Give the backbone structure.
Amino acid sequence: MPFPIDRPRRLRRTPAIRALVRETHLQPSNFIFPLFVVEGEGIRKEIGAMPGNFQMSIDETVRECALIHSLGIGGVILFGIPKHKDEEASGAFDDEGIVQRAVRAIKREVPGLLVVTDVCNCEYTSHGHCGKIVDGDVDNDITLEWLAASAVSHARAGADIVAPSDMMDGRVAAIRDSLDESGFSHLPIMAYAAKYASSYYGPFREAAESAPQFGDRRTYQMDPANAREAMKEMALDLEEGADILMVKPALAYLDIIRQAYDRFEVPIAAYQVSGEFSQIVAAARLGWIDGERMMMESLTSIKRAGASIILTYFAKDAARLLQ
Ligand code: PBG
Ligand code: ZN
C-alpha cells in the first residue's frame, strides 16, 4: 500500500507512539562490566585511554561490585594483572592468583552478582602473548593445558561462567573436559568464538598491561576480512561444548552478530571493546558528538543485531540512564 495510504511517519509522531512500536529494549541485566584487578590495597588507578575505568585492588573491586549489583547490571568479567609475569603464565592458573582471590572476595561480599572470568594467558606472560611461545609463535596444544588449568582454578574459586579469549584451536573442548573431570559439569562456557585481530583493543592493552612484546596476534585471532570463517569458528566452539558464543569487537562486526543469531540456537554475546568505548568518550569530550546518545545508539544496534548479552565499559552509565 504505497503513499498516500501508507504513511510510516504516523507511528513516529509522539514519544508515546514511538515507545509503543519500539522493537529493541536494552536492560541493565543484558550488560557485563569488565574489571581490571591489580595487587595491593586501596588502589584505584584510572586507565589513561579509558576515562572512568580503573585498575582496582581486590578491596576496591569488591566495593565496585556492590555498586554494579545495585544498578541491576547482569554481571562482571574479571581480568587479572599479576605482580609477576613469566614465560609460563604461572599466575594464570595459581589458586592464589589475583583473579582467583578476587572471585572469592566478590562471592563472599556480593554473592548475588554473576562473576565471569576471562580465561587467557596474555596478562600473565612476560612476552604478552596468549600462550606458550615455541619457535617464535604461540604453540596451540601446550597452551590448551594452561587454559584448562586456569578455567578449573577459576571454577574452584567460585566463578559462575568462564570465558576463554585466547583463540587456540580446541580450547573449548579442553576446558569442558577438565571442568567436567573436576566436578564442574554445571559451569557454562562463554566462548570468545569469533574474536578478530583488531585495532579496537588498543586501550585495553594499557588497562591489562598485556601488549605483545613482539609481533602481533594475527596467527591466532581472526582476520577482520572474514565472515564465513567466523561461522566455522562458532560451529566448532558449539560442537566442543560452548554454551554462549561471543563476537568481538561488536559495532564493526554487526553482520557477524546477525549471522550468528540466525544460525545458532544459543545466546549470542558481543564485546563492545575498549577502542569502541574510547572513541565515543574522546569525541564527546571534544564536543563533536553527543556521547550519551551515541552510547545508547551503539548498544541498541548491538542488541538489535542479535546480541542478548553485551560486555561493555558503558554498563554503569547505560544502566543509570535505564533506571
Ligand atoms: C585478551 C583479551 C583482549 C581483550 C579481551 N581479552 C585483548 C587482546 O586480545 O589483545 C580486549 C578487550 C577490549 O579491548 O576491551 N585475550
Ligand atoms: Zn590473551
About this structure: The chain is about 40% helix and 15% strand. Residues 25 and 83 are 41 Å apart (CA to CA). Residues 25-322 form a domain with the TIM Barrel fold (CATH 3.20.20.70).
